[in-house]
Amino acid sequence: MTPDQIREQYGRQVDRIRAREDLTPQAKQVAMARAHTAAAQKIAAIRDADRQQYQQRKTTLEKRLFGNRELSGTDALSARDARERAAQYTHPDEAMRAYQRAQRDGDKDMMRALGSTTYMTPDVPSELGRMRPDQVASLANSELTVYGNDAPEAA
Length: 155
Known about the structure:
Elements: H1 3-19, H2 25-66, H3 74-87, H4 92-105, H5 108-115, H6 133-140, H7 151-154
């Protein structure tokens, strides 16, 4: 059953509860709360299963793309050196320039190392993309007031 189907089923269940004339208002509230809890649990179970499947697929693909290959000698040293150099970049723009240089030079180890770092794929809106995670957290926890039409939703 999909989340939409669960929501539809929940909506029909609530409508049936509301239509029952043999229940007191308090009994209707209890019945609706139980129906809501059951629907929320079903949706949470589906969401958790979906997240678990996503994480497994992501892990598999990351291992295939960035994982250790059978390396020896200078190849192993080159890969380790590339990972150490990639870890030193603190800003996405620096990392992107290094990636472009590696791409131009055909340095696959450096491209792999830079691609595997988290700053290459930030999970933040573009307005915050140039900020470090600690700067975003500092801004979010600040006492600044949000003004405008969307202030209640944004704050």
